[in-house]
Structure formats: structure tokens, C-alpha cells
Design a protein that fits this description.
rod-shaped; mainly alpha
């Protein structure tokens, strides 16, 4: 008689693997926004540096222009010094605001990522509990199914033995009847 327990157990094992793989996929999906957020925070430093360089380049360009004016027009040093001071004050304000903006943006992103991580962690913990409960229930169902399959198999074997016994009895009665008719 074929053993029907193996396919049943194999089916349940495949279901468990599927459940576990689904859990892993969901956990990875939950972690993806964190990785993207971390990459965004990391890129802020290079963006800030690049933008700061552009602003400083503009400030240097104005200083070079003022140097050229001083060389071209002697005696304007007092005026260009005043302009230089105003330019430096304005660019200092721009660079300060720029630094504050990126600091605030970075802090906000990091806080958002941290809040998301906390929520994701809670979600993963709840998911793990739910999957554990599901796997426990599935294992219990497997045990019951395997037991029921074994019982059906035993009953089938008993029925098959009874049928074979009845067939043997019928054959014996038929042979006896045929022998009695021949005599």
C-alpha cells in the first residue's frame, strides 16, 4: 500500500516555507524605505557641500571682480572695501541659512527614519508573532491531517483485506458449487 503521509507532510512543509518566505519578503519590504532614507541623508552632505561650493565660488568671483576694479581704477579701494564688507556679510548670511537649512532637513529626515524604524520594528514583531501562531496552528493541522490520513489508510487496508476475504469465500463457494454440479 502506498504511503500517503509523505505527500501530506510535504505539502505542509511547503506551506511553512512559503509562509516564512512571505514573512522575510515583507520584512525586507519594510526595511527598504529605511535604506532609501539613509541614502537620502547620506546624499545631503554631498548636496550641501556642492551647493556651498557654488555660493563660495560666486563670492570669490565678486571678490575677483572688485580686485579688478581696484586695479583698473586707483583710489576706489575705500568704496570697494565697503562693497566687499557688504558682500561678505550677505554671503555669510546665505551660507549660515544654507547650513541651518541642511541641518534642519537632515535632522527631520533622521527623525522621520527613526520613527519609521520604530514603527517597522513593532510591525515586524507583530508579524513574527502572527507567523509563529500561524505556523503552530498549521503544524497542529498537519499532525491531525497525517493522523487522519493514516487512519483512512488503515481502514482502507482493512477493507481491502475484507474484500479479498469475501472474494476468496465466493471463489471457494463457487468452486464447491461447480464441483457439486459436476457430481
Amino acid at each position: 500500500m502506498a504511503d500517503y503521509t509523505n505527500p501530506v507532510a510535504t505539502t505542509f512543509e511547503l506551506q511553512r516555507r512559503s509562509i516564512e518566505q512571505g514573512q522575510e519578503a515583507l520584512e525586507q519590504t519594510l526595511m527598504f524605505p529605511t535604506r532609501v532614507g539613509d541614502a537620502a541623508v547620506d546624499s545631503l552632505d554631498s548636496q550641501e557641500s556642492a551647493q556651498r561650493s557654488v555660493v563660495e565660488f560666486q563670492q570669490d568671483a565678486i571678490h575677483s571682480l572688485l580686485d579688478t576694479v581696484e586695479e583698473t581704477f586707483p583710489g576706489v579701494e575705500t568704496s570697494t572695501d565697503d562693497v566687499r564688507e557688504v558682500v561678505d556679510d550677505q554671503y555669510g548670511s546665505v551660507l549660515g541659512a544654507h547650513a541651518d537649512l541642511f541641518e534642519n532637513l537632515s535632522t527631520s529626515l533622521e527623525e522621520g527614519i527613526e520613527a519609521y524604524d520604530d514603527l517597522s520594528e513593532e510591525t515586524v514583531e507583530a508579524l513574527e508573532e502572527a507567523v509563529e501562531d500561524l505556523v503552530d496552528a498549521q503544524e497542529e493541522l498537519e499532525e491531525q491531517s497525517v493522523e487522519a490520513t493514516e487512519q483512512v489508510e488503515e481502514q482502507f487496508e482493512e477493507l481491502q483485506a475484507q474484500v479479498e476475504n469475501v472474494q476468496e469465500q465466493i471463489q471457494s463457494v463457487s468452486e464447491d458449487a461447480a464441483a457439486a454440479v459436476d457430481n
